[in-house]
Amino acid sequence: MKKFTRVLFLSIVGLLFFSGCAQKVHLKALKPAEISEMTSKRRVAVSDFKNDKVGLSGKIESALAHHKIDRKKYFTVLSRKDMAKVIAEQNLQSSELMDEKTSVKVGKLIGAQAIINGEIASADAESSYYFEDRERCLQYYKDGGCAQYKHYKVKCDTVQAGVSANINIVDVETGGIIYGDTISKEYSADSCKAGKLNLGLLMIEGSAKQILSKGQALNKLTDSIAKEFVYKVTPNYIYFTVTLLDTIDVDSATDAQKKKFENALKYIKASRYDKAKKILASLMDEFDAKSYAVAYNYGIVQEATGNYEEAKKLYSLADELTVEPVKEINLAINRINELIEQEKEVKKQMHAK
Length: 353
Known about the structure:
Elements: H1 2-18, E1 24-31, E2 43-46, H2 56-66, E3 68-69, E4 72-73, E5 76-77, H3 80-89, H4 100-110, E6 114-140, E7 146-171, E8 177-190, E9 195-199, E10 202-206, H5 214-233, E11 236-243, H6 255-269, H7 273-286, H8 292-304, H9 308-321, H10 327-350
Parallel strand pairs: 2-5, 2-6
Antiparallel strand pairs: 1-11, 3-4, 6-7, 7-8, 8-9, 9-10
Helix pairs in contact: 1-10, 2-5, 3-4, 6-7, 7-8, 8-9, 9-10
């Protein structure tokens, strides 16, 4: 999966550097869950996390309950009220669910296949301020230089926040740990500078003066931890951009055929793959499958509609028809091979019992 992400990243970078003003389209693909063991543990329960003053356990529970793939809920999340009732009946404390044996006992009583527990290792936020020297021109010379400056100070507010959580998933059937890791997020902002929100692989820059309060920062970081955790345990769609080949490489192409080709590209960009498919299939026949641009764009249509094996055949044909490497085709071949492997894993996960 990491290899697949890297391939897509390199594809996108390659497109940014080399495609210029070429026409692009946005595609999506279903990526398998990182924690594949959870694909057969669809009935889950989330316990109250230890030291959870930021509400992380509730956010994880809500995110799991609302996660859908193609409009279908992926998990059945058991009620925390039922879990609390069992805990009370067994004279236990929520913190005791950090023990695998206790989690197994409670999980079996409520009918869960997996119990998610954890603790907040740290959740801190601090605010401060300092003064920054500024200057402004009050009067200018005729030649444009500044004749008189005003010097003044500006108050700059700062906020730093961090949340770190230890999260475990216990297999109720075996008592083993399916997943155990620490997820940490940090936020740092300055009203006189650009704010930064560290979300793991993603660093978001905010404009100056747009900073969060301490409470808002902790809430944002907790949301991010919950989303990352759910992302790990469920298949997710990823989105990426590919470049179309917008020029027919057949010298004998008529004006009518060139127009058909242009229309096919317009339909692709409008996500009208049904129409694009008919036009490109017709051009494949008319050019006796000798146009790598037609074959490549037809492959994009097949890839966009999930027909990866057909897309691979068309990309391979396009590659055979070129006399020198074409960067878009090279990227497509690498990408489709990874997508095919990912699709196999996704099917296993989606149909796991």
